Amino acid sequence: SQYTAQDIQVLEGMEAVRRRPGMYIGSTDHRGLHHLIYEIVDNAVDEAMAGYCTAITIHIEPSGAVRVEDDGRGIPVDIHPATGKSAVETVMTTLHAGGKFGGKGYTVSGGLHGVGASVVNALSSSLRVEVRREGYLWGQNFEKGITTSPLEQLKKASGTGTTTTFLPDEDIFGPPEYNFEDLSQRFKEMAYLNRGLQITLISEWHKEQGYKQWRQKYVFEGGIVSFVADLNHGKEPLSPNPLYIYKDINNTVVEAAVQYNTGFSEISYSFANCINTPDGGTHLTGFRTALTRALNDYARKQKF
Ligand code: 0RA
Questions:
Q1: Residues 213-233 pLDDT 10s
Q2: Do residues 100 and 118 make contact, with C-beta atoms less than 8 angstroms apart?
Q3: pTM of the entire structure?
Q4: Burial of residue 183, with CB atoms counted within 10 A of its CB: 0-12 exposed, 13-18 middle, 19 or more buried
Q5: Do residues 179 and 30 make contact, with C-beta atoms less than 8 angstroms apart?
Q6: What does the alpha-carbon distance between residue 269 and residue 192 come to, in Å, rounded to a whole number?
Q7: For a pocket test of ligand 1, which of 43, 73, 132 has the largest count of ligand atoms closer than 8 A to its C-beta?
Q8: What is the rounded distance in angstroms from the CA atom of residue 21 to the CA atom of residue 29?
């Protein structure tokens, strides 16, 4: 096979990520390590937001390797005529490959628009991706972002989905230190924000280290309505159910849930693209303004 200008670009891209990991994942401490998992899970959540994935399972193996399984459509395995490569290989080795395939457009979870898989690949001493699609199981391997085997058709297999297994590079992160609480909190939020999506975290790494907490499953049929109801658990709500609004404006989805209680303090959580925004933003201030106006208009009409 031929060594092309595109192959050089891939090598240079992977080298750039390994030289300055903080530029891509923020840091190389445990937060950076967790970021790797979030990048891969975000891609699966994107597939759920597009309406094709119902369950995501994250395994942390005793070695510290991470396996993320989804039941989405599977990353396309056919060879793209322009690149001579499969979408699987392109997604895994090209920075900024997100959103190019399948026109996923608006369904974006996380901040990097699906560019994350190649960054995770670059920062993993080994990574294997397996895809169920078109009646077969397919698999391909990489080391430090470099392709080490072609995409192989392995055996007949039913269903669809993608499984990515990666071992974070100890040269970059040191020995893996995972925090179960941090990871499960994030997956809980994601499950609230994506109604009906089942997210399971199974950490044999924590189990083996003797931690009591090593397994957690989240699925909320009520989505953010469940979130608000759960926040009001143990309080006295003023209505039986949270108020819920949903609007899709030119493929931008806006969703809010509100429930008053007898207390005096307010709790509000805001998110953009499935990311918690603790400092708020125009999405939150806009909502507050609109809620105040709606209540004032109503009160005026009722001549309160
Ligand atoms: C591109 C196109 C299609 C699916 C995906 C990517 C995809 C990517 C990931 C990453 C993790 N899980 C994923 N699942 C799917 C859709 C192709 C089609 O039309 O069938």
A1: 999 999 999 999 999 999 999
A2: no
A3: 0.91
A4: buried
A5: yes
A6: 12
A7: 73
A8: 11
